[in-house]
Amino acid sequence: MRSVAGEVLVGDHLVRAPKTTLVNYVPRRPDEAMRGKIIAVYQGIDGAAQYSTVALNLGARNNVEPGLVFGIYKKGNTITVADAAGKTREAQLPTEQAGSLFVYRVFDKVSYALVLDSRARSTSATASPRRRANERRPTSLADAGADPGIGPVGFLKLIDAFGSAEAAAAARSAQTEKLVGREAAEALQAGAAAESVQAALAWAESDGCHLITLLDADYPAQLAEAASPPPLLFARGRRELLARTMLAVVGSRAATQQGKRNAEDFASALAAHGYTIVSGLASGIDAAAHQGALAHPASTVAVIGTGIDRVYPASNRQLAHRVAEHGLILSEFPLGMGPLPGHFPRRNRIIAGLARGCLVVEAGIASGSLISARLAMENNRDVMAIPGSIHNAQARGCHRLIKDGARLVESVDDVLDEIGRLPAPPPPPILRQEEPEAPPLLSSMGWEPVLADALAGTLGLTPGEVYAMLLELELAGRVASLPGGRFQRLAQL
Description:
493 residues, Rossmann fold, 17 helices, elongated, DprA_WH, WH-like_DNA-bd_sf, DprA, DNA protecting protein DprA
């Protein structure tokens, strides 16, 4: 399980565990020099303490092991005091211990811990509780995370320093300037983005529209663990999909017919196994992956590089409406924002952060989908690639990833062996029409594009006879027509 919030639910039954070797995690103190921060708080285990489960910014790379017990310390509040002459000044209260926690699960860069006791309500972002999913948000600029001058890193710095978005928004610009720079601090103080915040809050009143902040209970745990998680997500559609296990299926916009077929087939089969497919709503592989997943309850999540009220490319408008109705669309960009080149690498980092793994179906050597794959590798996620023909320029990016350590996959079973099978009912059998009776023609085609006239010469048939057979096969989805009178045989899962 990758989502802590989904590990234990109120009402779960307890039964005898299967016979196995249990690891005894004896509580012990860490090294004196070991320091870290709480980066997320989850409230999924009711009644364990004031807070329940937390995520730490320390992992196996920092020599963290299950069983370590840390003390929780919070920064003292800043108060205003007056001297005998009536002059006021600010004073920092001393740091105080707020409780302790017990590490029970460790990953490479992050670990999870259970709060053993919590004696004081912390105002620090390192231990502040997340909001409930349906709680109304204040209209402060920092809370909405809507100021492009601050950005994800600046937002987290403000929360870390002031303890809450509201406190950061109320702070003096001299205090925030050291963290986010003068221009952003002055904009924060002046409420420069108040209009866009109000527009976002009004938009969120519409059916199916949501604003999700990094402090919310249902902010995706996988994304919160990634580097620079967006402080605010605009969401349209089925918000509950954020709690599901996701797999990224990405690739080239200029995909071949075979590549798009592979993307749709793999996405459909993996969604049938319970994975929610996440992609970027671009042309080519992305669109095919969304199409394949929409037929299943696990459905699909589209992360876009524009404001959520825009569709890019416009040719995917109908698909976007279907995703919003049956799946979920996400964006970190303000309403009305157009498709700028720098937006798409930022979108790709969200795709990589949301997913347990990343499957690259077909990609050229300069494809933007390789950014998603690299980011997934950096976040310690499984990366897989489907190989292609050495003559296909759209396969060279996949081949490069495989050389760099990505898992070569040829089937859905290969993918499931890599990322794990979810506890879901077996997928229904895929019923396909019988292949038209033209085995000599298909055998003669091989798997590379071929001219119809060349097939006619090989088989001893007239061009008219070959074109008639190819048309029948194309209608059955067995071959694809390419420019220049060429045809290519399509494989099926």
